Structures are given as structure tokens and as C-alpha cells.
């Protein structure tokens, strides 16, 4: 009888270890973000909740949404009145350093927009991109502009070209999901469940790309280790919903 109980104890112990190892491997895999969402649901902040939605305001403005943005139920919409400079918005309540951001969006045909983070404000910064890296949102299929791979959907704009875009992309007007997971060891961008970008922030590779590319004349681009979350109005209608973030 003792041998039976001992055998059952050993089997249970090994099964538990295997389960724990499996969970650890899941968190370290490409789906680490998905698993942690359910495990740490209480840590998420809904940035469009009744309490938080009023914290969205124009970039470099004291309060309130610009004329080009409206709230339709639980959806934040850009009317496309902005341009390269002007019309962008930020969540002004607090800054984020290491974080996971999750949201849904859809865009008009040929539209152009972006999700920004680590954004800083000030008179010397005319737009979000003066300081903040960008997850590019774009319907490049219907765009009249010719785009290279650093400026298409799912890219880290001007820095890292995306992969898996053909697999992940949807037609203009359809809802998409995007996620950004930022830590000081690794950054990943996700589009409709597919990883599009992965890089190490402030690494030698990152610095060489910055110094040689689009951002060479923007000394404070990507420099901040924490900042505001921003959404771009680049002259296109775009809708955002289910904007959620958690600190890591």
C-alpha cells in the first residue's frame, strides 16, 4: 500500500512539474503576450473607459480632443482633418515605460495613421514622431503613394521592416488587432496575431539605423525610456476601440 501511495505521489509531482514547465515555455514563446493577458487581467487599464476616455487630448494641448476627433460610443474616430503636422492626440494621464498595449482599429481606403509610444511634448516637438517610435498603420494596397518596406503596415516606421504582413493584413474598413510589447530587452509588434517586428531598443543595430536613416535629423527620436501613448491623424479616417495597456 505504501508503495502505491508513493508511486501516486511521484506521478503527481512530475505532472505538476511538466505543467509548470509548459506554462513557462508558453510565456517565453511567440504567444507570451496572449498568455499573460488572461493571467494578469486585473493589471490592464482600459484607456477608453468612462473614467479614462476624457484623458485623451490634442498633442501639446492642455485638454480636450481636437476638432478632427470624435467619440462614437466606445470608439475613438479620426475624421481625417489632420496632416503631417497637427491633429494628433495623446493619452495624457500618465507615461509608460515598459508596457504591453493592445487595441483594435480599422482604416479608410488608402488611409495612413500610426500608434506611438514614449512620446514627449514641448514647443520644440511639432509632432508625435519627433520623439516617439511608431507602429505604422496603413492601407498601402489602395495608396497612391509608392512605399518602401520601412513605411508599410506593421513596420517600426523608418527603422524596421515588417514580416508576415501578407498573411496578417485585412481589407480597408475591416477591424484589425495590434499589440506592442515593449521591454528594455526586446520590443515586438503584432498584427492580427502575427509578429511583424522584433528588435532590441537602443542597441548598436538600433542606433546605426537611427543615425543613417529617416531619423538622423531628429536628435530626440526614440531617446526617452518612458512617455505618452499617441494616435496619429494623418489625413485619413480611422477608428480605434478596445485600447488597453498594462505596465510590465
From TrEMBL:
Every 3-keto-alpha-glucoside-1,2-lyase/3-keto-2-hydroxy-glucal hydratase domain range: 44-246
InterPro entries (alphabetical): AL/BT2_dom
A Pfam family that the UniProt record links to this protein: 3keto-disac_hyd
Top-rank taxon: Bacteria
Biased composition (Low complexity): 31-43
GO MF annotation, one: hydrolase activity
Stretch list, region Disordered: 20-45
Protein name in the entry: DUF1080 domain-containing protein
Originating organism: Antarcticibacterium flavum
Amino acid at each position: 500500500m505504501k508503495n502505491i501511495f508513493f508511486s501516486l505521489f511521484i506521478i503527481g509531482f512530475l505532472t505538476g512539474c511538466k505543467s509548470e514547465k509548459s506554462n513557462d515555455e508558453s510565456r517565453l514563446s511567440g504567444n507570451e503576450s496572449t498568455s499573460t493577458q488572461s493571467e494578469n487581467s486585473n493589471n490592464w487599464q482600459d484607456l477608453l473607459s468612462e473614467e479614462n476616455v476624457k484623458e485623451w487630448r490634442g498633442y501639446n494641448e492642455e485638454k480636450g480632443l481636437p476638432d478632427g476627433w470624435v467619440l462614437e460610443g466606445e470608439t475613438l474616430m479620426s475624421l481625417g482633418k489632420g496632416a503631417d503636422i497637427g491633429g494628433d492626440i495623446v493619452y495624457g494621464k500618465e507615461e509608460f515605460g515598459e508596457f504591453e498595449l493592445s487595441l483594435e482599429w480599422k482604416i479608410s481606403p488608402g488611409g495612413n495613421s500610426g500608434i506611438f509610444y514614449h512620446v514627449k511634448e514641448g514647443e520644440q516637438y511639432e509632432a508625435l514622431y519627433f520623439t516617439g517610435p511608431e507602429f505604422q498603420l496603413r492601407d498601402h494596397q489602395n495608396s497612391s503613394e509608392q512605399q518602401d518596406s520601412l513605411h508599410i503596415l506593421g513596420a517600426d516606421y523608418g527603422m524596421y521592416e515588417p514580416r508576415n504582413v501578407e498573411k496578417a493584413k485585412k481589407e480597408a474598413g475591416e477591424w484589425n488587432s495590434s499589440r506592442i510589447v515593449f521591454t528594455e530587452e526586446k520590443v515586438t509588434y503584432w498584427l492580427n496575431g502575427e509578429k511583424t517586428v522584433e528588435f532590441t531598443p537602443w542597441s548598436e543595430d538600433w542606433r546605426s539605423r537611427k543615425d543613417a536613416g529617416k531619423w538622423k535629423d531628429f536628435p530626440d527620436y526614440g531617446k526617452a525610456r518612458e512617455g505618452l501613448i499617441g494616435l496619429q491623424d494623418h489625413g485619413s479616417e480611422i477608428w480605434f476601440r478596445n485600447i488597453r495597456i498594462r505596465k510590465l
